[in-house]
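(Structure overview)
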Amino acid sequence: MPRALGQTVSTVAFAAFVPLIGGAVSLLGGSGAAAPAVTVPAGIEVGEERPGGSATSRESVTNRDAFSHFSHGIGFEGEARFKVGNAIFRKLWVAAPSSTQASDGLGPLYNARGCQNCHLKDGRGRPPLANFPDETAISMFLRLSIPPETEEQKRLLAERKATTIPDPVYGGQLQNIAIQGHDGEGQMHITYTDVPVTLAGGQVVTLRRPSYSVINLAYGPLHPKVMLSPRIAPPMIGLGLVEAIPEADIRANADPDDANKDGISGRTNEVWSMSSQSVKLGRFGWKAGEPSVLDQSGAAAAGDIGLSNPLMPFPSGDCTAAQKTCIDAPNGNSERAGGLELSKELLDLVTFYSQNLAVPSRRDAGDDAVLNGKGLFYKVGCAACHMPSFTTGVVDGQPHLSKQLIWPYSDFLLHDMGEGLADGRPEGEASGQEWRTAPLWGVGLTEVVSGHTFLLHDGRARNVEEAILWHGGEAQAARDGYAQLSAEERAALLKFVNSL
């Protein structure tokens, strides 16, 4: 259901650590149906300690650079491309006209001046701190959309040429910052309500339920039926490997009608690819709204920074016709960039960089408590959606990403996560209660890399346990199974997840 501005979005979390979902021992799910038994692997499995296959980083995981290393086996030429792509990823863009055209093109409205600002150290973003609720958000923003109102809008959605309909004034996301002489669109405001949860043995965990509104609107009111969905920047590791998983292998695990009656109904999101001008399987983003790393990179450059590029050739970024001063502002389109602000060459380099941020090695995979936790992870049903492994296909020009056994712990499908994690905002085929299963690889290094442990799409969970306890819908049985474990068993399961 659409929510009016300022109304409590009591369940706007999709998972930065998406569904730990059911499918194990005889634990009752929300429907009361017992989940079928699954086979729990014994000990360490072949390849498990290198979750990115041969492309797994061999570098240290003890410092903030753990997510910033290039794929092993990339070669000298690949390493050079990676490093140039990194420079573009870290570049701080400026408003046009400037003393050099090389960095022209920021805004006029934006959320960050560069990719690295949101994906600091290539890691996970965070919400504004609870004791500073109006802190300017950098690595988190609000997506905006409205229900379709015209036949043309309905046609675009039906043909999958659009996944959402933007707010007619504020566009597809709230840009809270602007170049000099312009006003940012407004500020995201968050309030939290405590939600106590009692676990087996009497331990009480206090969750926090967020509510979202927009304050200091600079361009008049938002649409009365606007839908708000907060989004935190996800970690960047392993994207090229995810992209290399054959479509057929992801589709093979979809069960939209729950034909096997296990309570898990994974679905695909079929979305428009700007790069191929065709409908493709969505596999990136919180709701699987982007089909490729290239599409994701082009959309982020335009929406987050305001850079025109081959996929989104709009020099005013997300500005709308209702924001005339924004549309009329000087832009950084230049002949040297092919009439754009971010040229095809630079977009390709950023894409290559993003495809080749290596997955770190596992830690303590053979530890007795970790292996015990692994068994419990399977037993309560987490592995039904957080599927452990895939084998990549052949990637043209990137043999180091090809034919690799990888361990992302995700099925990359959409799942109904219940009211507790609903944002009420559809995106393509994804309903307001569905989210893509986020991969878990690297989750235990969040604090090392990003300096915090906030998880889920809006950072409401302050650690892995809170993230698990927010799971509902198809994940209810697994969530309840976790809550019913002893304190020692819960600690072992958490130790396993944090070893990934």
Notes: The CA atoms of residues 111 and 285 lie 17 Å apart. DSSP finds 13 helices and twelve strands in the chain.
